[in-house]
Amino acid sequence: MKAIIKSFINGLLTIVPIILVIYILVRVFNFLDSILGNVLKPYMKQDYIPGVGILATLVLITFLGWLSTRFFAGKIIDLIDRLLERIPLVKTLYTVIKDTFQSFLGEKKSFSKVVLVTMPGTSMKVIGFVTSEEVEEVIHSLKDHFAVYVPQTFQVAGFTFLIPKEEIEWLDIKPEEAMKFVLSGGVSSSKAEKKQKAC
After folding, report:
1. Residues in CB range of 180: below 8 A, 6 or more apart
2. Burial letters for 33-47: b for 16+ Cβ neighbours within 10 Å, e otherwise?
3. Among 141, 146, 116, 143, which residue's Cα sits nearest to residue 128?
4. pTM higher than the cut 0.70
5. pLDDT tens readout for residues 112-156
6. Cα separation of 116 and 10, whole Å?
7. 145 phi/psi in degrees, rounded to 5
């Protein structure tokens, strides 16, 4: 009986992660494909091939990116940008989405600087990512503070703390490794160590 249970658990540990990853990839693929795919399907009908919607979306984004560098089209996009930033409620949503994309894909990427901070009143340390070194633009009295995002384990949520510069300890590790360590609750590092020892 124990052998059967052990085999079942091994099956779960082996198969479930693979199934979940495939499921997520399929859902993401279908979502991205439907963005322009739903527009193209009525015209292409039986000739439509899954993935054409993603290809069309990539082509459109690339074209709009190229268009934004041209003088006349760039002026129109800049006008739309300024208009969205002046509409109440829409301004907040648009700014958050725009800044988030800029932080990951822009020239000045956030989440690229990994730090270690001490929890107040304790000796406990947490890993965070500096998202802004210009907090004084929002709160003038905090000119000597950095905004540090601390993600939570096993979820995407997290907290943003405003921490004095002198209390921040900079870490020389890759952001991807730090994020993997935090989100997995430290499990990823122990697996990496086992692989290194095995080699």
Report:
1. 188
2. beebbeebeeeeeee
3. 116
4. no
5. 789 998 888 888 888 988 888 878 777 878 888 888 888 888 776
6. 36
7. -115, 155
The residue among 35, 22, 21, 30 whose CA lies nearest residue 50 is 30
Residue 41 in tokens? 């399907």
Amino acid at 91: K
Copy the structure tokens of residue 125.
């340390």
